[in-house]
Every structure is written in structure tokens, then in C-alpha cells.
Amino acid sequence: MVEKEEVLTQLDEVEDPELELSIVELGLVYDVRFEQKDEGLHAEIDLTLTSPGCPAAPEIMAAAHRAALNTEGLESVHINLVWTPRWDPKKHASEDARMDMGIWD
User: Fold this and answer.
1) Nearest to residue 54, comparing CAs of 78, 87, 103, 90?
2) Measured between alpha carbons, how far is 85 from 76 in angstroms, rounded to an integer?
3) How many CB atoms lie within 10 A of CB 78?
4) Residues of 51-64 as b/e, b for ≥16 C-beta within 10 angstroms?
5) What gap in Å lies between CA 27 and CA 100, rounded to an integer?
6) Going from the N-terminus, what domains does the chain have, and what CATH number goes with each?
7) Which residues lie across from 34 on neighbouring strands?
8) CA 78, CA 94: separation in Å to the nearest integer?
């Protein structure tokens, strides 16, 4: 059985091209859910962006899709672009990512 952490490990390779930080470290990946389908295991991934007007949205979503499909045992992936809750780096980003962005607690 594929674990959420395995998918997150693959997604950690995807960077926001403007911030040059991992989408996982930025806290842009909100959830990973699995469904068993006739053709194999499917993952639904909830992903947000740093802003609704993010010009790199198609690039990030396509890279996340490709990366998640590299997870051994997954046959299909769907990336859901979500806006709730609104991304806040103080809440969602890792401590290392906040430091890289110059956000101090």
C-alpha cells in the first residue's frame, strides 16, 4: 500500500519557480487521499498556490502531477487546485522555508 509520506517525498522535488522552495516545504500541499479503482491505486492531491494570480500555476500543477506519478504503486493522480484555507506562510510553511523567505516568528 502506498503511504502519504511516499507521495510527499516525490512532491518535495517540485519547487515554486519564483521562490525556489519546495511546494511541500512551503505547505502548498494540503492533502493526499487514495482511492482503489479498477485500473489501480489513484491519488487525489489538494494543492494550493501562494496567490490566486500565480503566473506559474500551470507549471507547478503539471510538475506536481508528474512527480506524484513517480510514486511506486500509483497508477493515476489528480491535482485539485484549492483555495481554502487561504495559504499563509506563517501557518503553512515549514520553519526552514519561513527562514528562507525572511519570515521570523
Assistant:
1) 87
2) 25
3) 12
4) eeebeeeeebbebb
5) 14
6) 4-90 (3.30.300.130)
7) 43
8) 24
Confidence check: pLDDT of 105 > 80:
no
Q: Which tens digit of pLDDT belongs to each residue from 28-64?
A: 999 999 999 999 999 999 999 999 999 999 999 999 9
Residue with cell 510538475: 63
User: Residue 9 gets which letter from DSSP?
Assistant: H
Strand order in the sheet with 74-81: 29-37, 40-47, 74-81
Report how far residue 68's alpha carbon sits from residue 75's, in angstroms, rounded to the nearest whole number.
10
d(CA 83, CA 57): 13
